[in-house]
Amino acid sequence: MEQRFVLLLVCLWSFMAVAEPVAWDGTAKSWLTRGSEHFQIHYPQGEQYEETALHALDLAETVHKQLIPFFGTVPATKTQLVLVDDFDISNGWATFSPFPQIRLFSSPPQDINGLENNDEWMAALIRHEYVHILHMEMARGIPANGRKVFGRLPFFFPHALTPPLFIEGLAVYFETNPTLGIGRLQSNFYEMQMRAEVRSGEFDELGEAVASLREWPYGKHYLYGAYFIDYLVRTYGEQQLQRYLQQYSKQILPYIMQNDVARTVFGKNFAQLWDDFRKDMLVRFAADPEQTYVEGRSIADSGFRTLATTVLGDRLFVNYANDQDRAELRVYPIDSNAQAADGDFLTYTKGITDLDVNAEGVIAASRRISYSSGRLENDIFIWQNSDWTRLTSEQRLRKVRWLPEGELLVASRMVAGISELYLLNLSGEMSLLWRGVAGDVLGDFDVSPDGLSIAASIKRPDQGWNLELFSIADHVWTPLTNSLSIESAPEYTPDGSLLFTADYDGVFNIYLRTSEGDVSQITQVESGAFSPRWRDGSVVYQQYTVTGYQLREIPMLSALPPALTVTDVPIGMHNYPNPVLISANSSDAEPYSPLKTVRPYYWLPAWEITDTNSRVGLQTGGMDALGRHMYSLLLLRDVKQDVWEGSAFYSYDPRWTLSWDRSHSYRFPFSEVLDPIVIRDDTVRGERNYLLRGIEDQLSLSAGLSYSNKSLVRAPEDITIVGPRDLSQGLAGLALTFDNRETYLQSTGVGWGHKIEIVAETNDLLESAYKGEQYQADWQYSFNIAGRHSLTLSAAGGWADDTAGTFILGGLPPQEDLQRFGRDELSLSGYQQGAAIGHFYDRERIKFSAWLGRIEDNWDVWPIGAGDVSLSLYAESGAAWFRGQDRKALPAVGMELSIEALIGYRLILPIKAGVAYGIDDTLGETQTYLRTAWYY
């Protein structure tokens, strides 16, 4: 069915709703539910999750009591908490649609990224996400009454229609506790990032911070937003911030009223407030002209986005990932006189988060793999003899180190939020070394040169991050440090000393701790120094910059000023108070039921009025708390033509989808004065994806069906209809797909990889006017081009029995149906639809896309901005023919300019202007077009 009913509110709903089902093949066989006064929590069955769920309810009720005095609005329904253990990353999310819900990732942060500065992960996570819920729920006047009539539509949630800069900034502000020194606004990592932004001389304008898409640092709307909200509170007071939120809560034109409300409350619009904020940051983070710095020489000539490094002798191995090219494993030989370079290529990589190498040059790597089930988990791989071998499967091992003899590995993992250490042999067999308790968080670690102990950065319950020593033989931990600072990334030197990162003076630097306990400072950097590696008498480390992390190297003989050489480590214990202040009085656990949350939560009017139609109707939809059941329904009545139309869609996680569409077309045989011939088109499609999976879920088998029926509804009395009044086609088939394509944040199009798909369908299993089989095959390959450009080759072909349906070529993309099954119309630029028809077809394309530049600006707080600009050049050729006919190729060329429009701060709308030229003298034509495509 053509999408005729494109309304602003529909678009808003589509990009605000979060549709992320829990993983379907996790270890939990069933889910349980508990409730409290203001929350329900859903969690996998199991003792380890039961304890976390009960604790999360206590935390949530405590946070609710603490935050309600500021926000003043209680959600109309209980907030749904879902505890998941599907990801080897630290994250979470919250949304108001279609009901207030929070997803809690049970995995606490192990690395220094701003999130490490917490008293307890679950407490920090719930507080941050519940701020979003209470913030979004704020509504007065027309927005509040509108919810009572139309349900939970985004238009009636004014604070959802504001920049993420304000939304995330407010949550980071409230997650921070200056008294306890926790939260990102108390984090030396966040301070480092803002210091770098200020001193770079490229402090973001307001519009640039609002349009936070791809510029480094990633997630800068959190960074700038947090400091901006903090500035407003420091300057005007928390009561004025509260007043602004309350005033904005009643706006019926929320996007455009932000500056008016700001002027009313603060006396200035946001552009003026941002200018004052920028001046405040320039003073606060101004460089000290008397400060001297000790930094190493640059090794690599470009900034990395993600880094994993290891050293063997004088060779530095680096997983090079810049988010615009295919990731590579490179080696940098030592050369003190060399300029910064790119290193020597060893092999391509994907998803590597940790590296270590043994004395024989065998590399162990932890790789993060994204599965079709929705899980994101790490496993260990070995690189030897120029080839990768998978050592473990779905074991979630995140960090890895060789024992000195090079035959055994030590690896860490986290399951249900509990840290563990394992001993691992080269057959992949695992034996447990240590399992922590709730609140123990194991970070980076290293094995001592004698192989008897492990030095690790570890966070104990109610404490901060310290270094401890683990005896492999006795399984006993011994504290090495006891400080109020963050100590991380221990690395042994050959003599048994420890290199590590710490923020003793408020800046992360590299330190050396001898076996006697003496600590010396190795670097004195302006931003921050991380992840030290010992390389043949020098220290390689990663230094944060405004363009990414930069590899640097400093000889151990480089002397710091005498006063800084030996460091007095600040001694102390945090002893954070228990974050639970009240008991949730939770209900008994009961089996999870989707029926309690899956009801419709909104309805939206839809209409279209043309010369021939007057359609009116409504749309609704919903999902359950686990996100497994999702559906939408659109019903329309064409009052002029006296017919019903509509569409329905249902999915059960990514595996099952079912859709129905009904539309009508109208033919006026003589003139539009007469009644039209009315033809109804009903289509039903269903798919069962991932019947079989393999090769890290890059290979999959799917089944599908497609049934369509065109029927004559009515015709004028003086019109004689010749032929059948109904024409149906029912196809059922299988599709085998291999897809290892990679897309990169900084690159246009697909960055690299293959997609191969073979579809076989038959007309003989469902009612159909056609008989026999039809087959289609599609191949695409994208080359790894250096930089932000892409080049893709593709070829497709199909063949069908003489009694089956035909393939139709012609028209601009996306003329073809994008689903796998029931596809019979395929685009061919430069030609009209139906330019070629037959039981056989082929089509070939080559497309080059060049990244032209980046705007990334919203120009103040207006809900319209721009992102990347790119140009594509393409050539294609296609043909369709019947058995016994000659194949006639129809070639074409074209070009397309694409500018990303940013709508409503979140929705990326590529606006594409293009021209296509069909080269064939008879059928070819010049087609110009301006079109858009929605995605978020």
Automatic annotation (TrEMBL):
The cross-references to SUPFAM superfamilies, in alphabetical order and at most eight, read: DPP6 N-terminal domain-like
Does the UniProt entry include the keyword Signal? yes
Endpoints of the signal sequence: 1-19
InterPro entries attached here?
A: 6-blade_b-propeller_TolB-like
**UniProt keywords, alphabetically:** Signal
Q: This protein is called what?
A: Uncharacterized protein
